Amino acid sequence: MTALMIKAINVPRMTRVTWYKHRASVLGIPGLFLLAAAMLFIDSVLQRHWISSHHLTYCLAYADNATSSRCLTKDSPYLLGVFAGFVNYWRTEGTVVAVFLLAAVTGLFAGVPWVAREFEGGGFRFTWTQSVSPLRWLLGTFGPLTLLAEVTAAICGVAAHWWFQVAQWRLDGGTSPWGWESLEMTPLSMVSWTLLAMALALLLGVTIRRVLPAMIAFAVTFGGCLVLAQTWLPEFLFRVGDIPLQLNYSTQEYPTGGSYVAQTWFARPGGPKLNPMTVYGQMYNAPQPLDPVRWLTQHHLTEWIAYQPHSHLVWLALARNGILVAVATLAVLASVWWLRKHPAE
Amino acid sequence: MNVIDTDGLGKRYRQTWALRDCHLTVPAGHVAALVGPNGAGKTTLLRILAGVATPTAGTATVLGYTPGSQQARNAVSAVDQTVPLYRHLRVRDLLAAARALNDQWDTDLAVQRLSSLNLTTSCKVRKLSGGQQAQLALTLALARRPRLLLLDEPLASLDPLARQEVLGWLMTCVAEDGLSVMFSSHVIAELERVATYLVVLSQGQVQVAATVDSLLDSHLALTGPAEEADHLAGQVPVITAQRAGRQAQVLARTGAAPPGWAARPVTMEELVLGYLREPSARVLPRLEVAR
After folding, report:
1. Which of A332, B60, B214, B287 has the fewest CB atoms in 10 Å of its CB?
2. Residue A120 CB partners (closer than 8 Å, separation 6+)
3. CB proximity A178 to B under 8 Å
4. Distance from the A118 Cα atom to the nearest Cα atom in chain B, whole angstroms
5. CB distance A126–B86 less than 8 Å?
C-alpha cells in the first residue's frame, strides 16, 4: 500500500522538483530549526555548567518541585541567594515562546507562500501541463517540505526538552510538569505543531490562492489554534479520566506532587456539585469569625477535588498532540478535496 | 482520428459563460488556427483542452483522452498566453525541473534549441526578455515530444524575425514528428502562412471549423453593383456585404460567381474578418452555411 502511494505520488521526482523550485524553503526550514536547536543546546550546556559550578545540582532535582523548594528555602539559605541570581524569568519565558512559535513561523513564511504563490503567479499552469497531475504536484511538494520540517522540528524539540529541564528553574523556581511550557518543550509537541502549521498553510494556500490574504488567514487561524490549545483544550482534556477525591482535613490526604487538580467543588450528601466560589462567598460573609472546617461541617458540606495523577501526564500529552495531528490530517484531506472540487480555473 | 473533440462544451465563470455549447472536431496532423475577438473564449477552450481548467458543461477529448488524464498529460503540451514559467529559477534549473516532471523528455532538442537561441542557462528566467521567455516555454513544450501542442498567442511577444523562425521550427516539427498543433493568434498573416485548419470562435461558440483549403475553395470575394447586393443573398449564401459608393464587396460561400458579379479568390484574412463581422454565420462540419 505504502509502495503504491509512493509510486502514485512519485516522491523522488517531485522531491527533485521541490528542490529546484523551493531551495529557500528547503534550506530555510531546517536552518531555522537547527539554529534554534544549536542555540538551545549551547545555552543548556552553559546553564548546566553554572549549576554544577555553584553546587546547585542537588537542589534542582528536576521532577520534584517540593525537594528543590526545601533545599532552597530551608536547608541552604546560601543557595537560595545564589539561586535568586540564576532566575531570569522573562528571558526564559521569551525563549520558550520563541521556540514554541517556530512552527508558526515555518507555516507562515514557508508553508503558505509555496502553494499560494503558484496559484497567484500562474506557475501551476506550467507544472499541470507536464506529466504531473495537480494532486501529485500538491502532495509531492507538501510531502518533502513537511518531512524536512518535521525531522528538524523533532531535533529542535529534543534540544528544547533538554534545555527546559534546567531552564525551567529560571522561571522563578520551576514550573509544574502540567504547565504549558513543560508540555510544549518536547519533541512530540514541536512535531505536532509543525505538522499542523504546514497542513493549515496548505489548506489556506489552496483555498485562498493569494499569498498575502492566505498569510493573514494563516496567522489568524493558527493563532486561534494556539489559544484554543492553551485554554479550552487542556481544560477539557485534563478532566478526562480524572480521579475524584474527598478532602479529609484531619488526615490532610492530598494527591502527591506532580499531580494536577482539574476540578474543585463542594457537595452535600446526595446533593449536586456546588461552585467553590459560591461556597466561599457564603463562608466569608458569615457574621462571626469562623473556622472554615467547622463552618463546612455545620453546613454538611464536603470538599472534593478531581485530579490527574502524574502517571496520566504522558497519555494526556499524547492525546493532546494526537488531536493536533488529527486536525492536521483533516486539513490535508480538505486541501485535496478542495483541489479536486475547485481546480485552478 | 481526431485530436480534438468537444461536445456541448461550456465553461461559466460566475454568471458569465466564457464558452457555451461548443462542438468542435479537429482531425490529426493539422496546424489549427484558433481565432476570434477578445473574450470569444479562445483561452478558456485551450485551458480546458490542456487540463488546467474544468468544463462546466459538455465533454472534451484530446487524442481520445479526457483532458487532465495521465495519458492526455503525457501526450499534450501547452503554452499559456501568460507564459507560465518559474521565473525565479535559473534556466538550467527550470530545464532540470521540466525533465524531472516528464516521463518523456528530449534533452538534446532542448539543449540544441536553447543554444541556437543563445540563451545562457545560468541566467534567471525573469532576466530574459518576454520574447526569450516565450521561446523558452515553447522549447520546454516541444522537448516533451507531444502529439498535440496547444499554444495560446505564443508569438505575441516575439519580434517579426523570431516569429518567422518559430513558425518555421513548428512546421518542421509538424512535418517530421506528425505533431498536431492548435494555436490562437490575432495576427492573421501568421495563420495564413502555417494554418491548415481554421477554427473561428465568437461569443463563446464555434463559428467556423474546417480545413483552410476547403474554406478558401468554397468562398469567393465578389464585387458588383451595390444595388444588387441585397438580391445576391437569394442566389448564394452571403457571409458579409460591404458597400462603398456604387460598389459592393461581398464575401460569399460559393464556387462560382453569379452573373454580373466579378469574382476572385478570398484571402485568409478576408475570410476570417468576414466571419468575425458576422457572428451568426456558421461553417461547421456537416452543416450548411446559415445566417
Report:
1. B287
2. A209, A210, A211
3. no
4. 9
5. yes
SS3 B149: strand
Q: Is residue B63 part of a domain?
A: yes
Of the candidates B53, B78, B98, the beta carbon closest to that of A343 is on: B53
Q: How many domains does chain B have?
A: 2
Residues in chain A: 345
Residues B241-286: tens digit of each pLDDT: 888 888 888 888 888 878 888 889 988 888 888 888 887 776 665 4
Domain extent, residue A155, equals 2-238+313-341
Could you report the per-residue pLDDT of A81-100, keeping only the tens digit for each?
777 777 788 888 899 999 99
Helix (H) or strand (E) holding A187, with range, is helix A187-208
Examine the pLDDT at B290 and tell me if it is beyond 50.
Answer: no
Q: For residue B228, give its domain range.
A: 220-265
Query: For the segment A206-237, what is each residue's pLDDT rounded down to a tens digit?
Result: 999 999 999 999 999 999 999 999 999 988 98
**A69 and A185 share one domain:** yes
In chain B, % helix, strand, coil (3-state, to 5) comes to 35, 30, 35
Q: Which of B44, B86, B101 sits opposite A131 (nearest CB)?
A: B101
The verdict on a CB contact (< 8 Å) between B78 and A129 is yes
Q: Are residues B160 and B245 in the same domain?
A: no
| Count of domains for chain A | 2
Same domain, B162 and B192: yes
Cβ contact (<8 Å) for A16 and B82? no
> Nine-digit cell at B68?
487532465
Contacts of A343 in chain B (CB under 8 A): 52-54, 68
